[in-house]
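Researcher: Let's do a round of design. I'm pasting the structure tokens now; please hold your answer until I've finished.
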């Protein structure tokens, strides 16, 4: 594993389900010049709109598993592809759309790592009870970027996320929402 010690630009991050990319259902800012947006797709799930999207796009499909021994889970090759994609984005790009099947696990894990890579606090993702960040994607993407995260740190973040979810289930108020825009 070759670490790259990368800090990325502070993009506005959108964590979404791949089905959200449908102009009939959601008003996404794709009417802006495509040069302003980039999309990372973390699922093999088909979406006609994204399939035909000609802007900055990376398909990096992997299974939503957190056991590193399971074939098809997030690998360092996925991390390298994401880092390479981000590093080659034009300066005009301001918004990153990270999506997976439901917009809560794979996309949240990748988005949390990207937020951390930009020098910001990734707690905004881990504390959101509507997300269940994929810890394997988070861990490997951070490590590939040269960010020293330990398995214990990731387990702690995971427990923190589970507590936020339980609080929501118990009816406790939350300041978070599903498919949050992170600036």
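Researcher: That's everything. Go ahead.
Model: Designed sequence:
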């Amino acid at each position: 594993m070759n670490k790259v010690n990368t800090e990325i630009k502070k993009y506005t991050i959108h964590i979404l389900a791949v089905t959200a990319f449908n102009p009939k259902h959601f008003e996404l800012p794709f009417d802006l010049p495509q040069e302003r947006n980039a999309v990372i797709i973390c699922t093999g799930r088909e979406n006609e709109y994204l399939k035909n999207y000609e802007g900055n796009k990376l398909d990096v499909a992997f299974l939503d598993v957190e056991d590193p021994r399971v074939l098809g889970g997030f690998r360092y090759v996925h991390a390298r592809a994401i880092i390479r994609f981000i590093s080659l984005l034009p300066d005009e790009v301001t918004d990153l759309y990270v999506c997976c099947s439901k917009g809560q696990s794979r996309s949240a894990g990748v988005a949390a790592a990207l937020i951390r890579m930009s020098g910001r606090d990734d707690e905004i993702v881990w504390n959101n009870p509507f997300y269940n960040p994929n810890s394997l994607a988070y861990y490997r993407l951070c490590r590939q970027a040269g960010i020293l995260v330990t398995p214990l740190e990731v387990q702690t973040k995971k427990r923190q996320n589970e507590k936020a979810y339980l609080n929501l289930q118990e009816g406790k108020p939350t300041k978070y929402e599903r498919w949050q825009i992170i600036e």
